[in-house]
Design goal:
The chain is mainly alpha-helical. The protein is about 80% helix and about 0% strand. It contains three helices and no strands. Keywords: Membrane, Transmembrane, Transmembrane helix.
């Protein structure tokens, strides 16, 4: 097996945190949709672009949390 194949303990420990970050990603999707609509209405607003970028980071949060937890627990 390679180095990253056997990490079930990190996966199980990370599940509650992944659930919380999943809630954050749902909020991120809502912010992303509103930001896209606002940027279509007024493309000159640079703050909306920053808001959309932050929302995209929030959407990717569950994946980053699970990767972080599985990398911290040895096999």
């Amino acid at each position: 097996m390679s180095d990253g194949d056997c990490r079930p303990l990190g996966f199980l420990l990370g599940l509650p945190f992944a659930f919380l970050s999943l809630l954050l990603s749902i909020i991120g999707v809502i912010i992303w949709i509103v930001g896209i609509l606002l940027s279509c209405i007024c493309p000159c607003c640079l703050c909306v672009t920053v808001l959309v970028e932050i929302a995209l980071c929030m959407i990717k949060a569950p994946i980053h949390v699970m990767e972080w937890f599985t990398s911290k627990i040895p096999c």
